[in-house]
Here is the input.
Amino acid sequence: MGWVTDFAPREDELSSCIQCGLCLPVCPTFRLTGLETASPRGRLTAMAAVASGLPVDDRFEEIMGLCLQCRACEVVCPSFVPFGRAMEGARTEIAAQRKGLLRWLRRLTTARLLGNRMAVGWVTRAAAVAQRTPLHRLAPKGIRRSMAGMRSLRGRPDLIVGNRYPARQEKRGVAALLSGCVMDAWFGNVHVATVDLLTSIGWEVVSPPDQTCCGALAAHDGWAEETKQMAAKNVEAFRQADLVVVDSAGCGAHLKEYHHWADGGGELADKVVDVTEVVAEAISAGHLPRLEPNGEPVAIQDPCHLRHVQRITDQPRMILEAAGKTVVEIDPNGQCCGAAGIYSLLEQEMSGRLGSIKADQIKNTGAQLVASANPGCEMQLRTSLIESGHSARVAHPVEIYQEALQQAELSQGS
Ligand code: SF4
Ligand code: SF4
Here is the structure.
């Protein structure tokens, strides 16, 4: 039957694969299974088979579903195959051609509820109650696992969306901060650190009230129309900003590719920076301090969408060193931790295996502090560490830096 949408993998994308196999050793699912169908090359071959007329059937869905969309394959590909784009196209076809209750629920969650602040607010309140009571034991295993990785929702800071924070130095311009679907409600302290650091170097920070979810999870799950609608809304919401700052690596990666998704999306994409880029630049320029080393080890995890998509690796390390920490590498290949949006719910076995590898790597360092610049990875790492009997704290690099600055100020004052 072949493809039925305009968003399907394109002929030029599929034919650019020269079948060299250089991507196989870096693909987490190939490494763990050894199966060609769990490799980038195998997945592209399956897409080409559907393009030539084979149906989008159970097997095709299974082959595409096991992909983490980590995009490690893109980094090593000598033929520059745009694998992430092709996979989003394949997922869009699956979403268009395959029906059922689970798929309806996936659409409701990733394409509707995440973009609805009131719905996220209700889920957050329910999660806060479940955290304090045995209620969470009633949830299905995948949800229970995710909940174990959440930060405590008790005493979380106020939401930043709709707020404006004046620059505390001579004003450089207006930086708009993406509030994110769950960043604001579940990871508020990361926003607090981001706002504090940006205003201290002269940015006026606004979090536009009419913004919505970036749409990354909807795009990864194949809901192209809703992804376009979210992108169009954000293009308008962020139009006036000089800079668009994102403190969630997965969201930043998606915003930097908005040219695929909305008219004017390229203009927004050009203004997007990950918070680690801004903070590292300010440290380099001497606008933010470097603290004396204190020798505390911090194990660093590279979120795939920071490392493979945004190609950012030096900045988080530099920020942690400026916080006085000793950065400990856990994995030179930066293999995916298995979080991958809703993957940890849909592909629990593979996600659990990848999480456990990462937890063992962290455990081997002996570090009690872990830095991760992406909320999904943070939750997966925390869950995997708990499961492996290790109790290290996981936090965002800018949060670790801002806390270190505050502690240094306190000890100077005492
Ligand atoms: S590295 Fe690129 S060209 Fe080579 S098999 Fe993988 S996707 Fe195809
Ligand atoms: S995106 Fe990641 S999991 Fe998917 S084929 Fe590429 S390397 Fe493998």
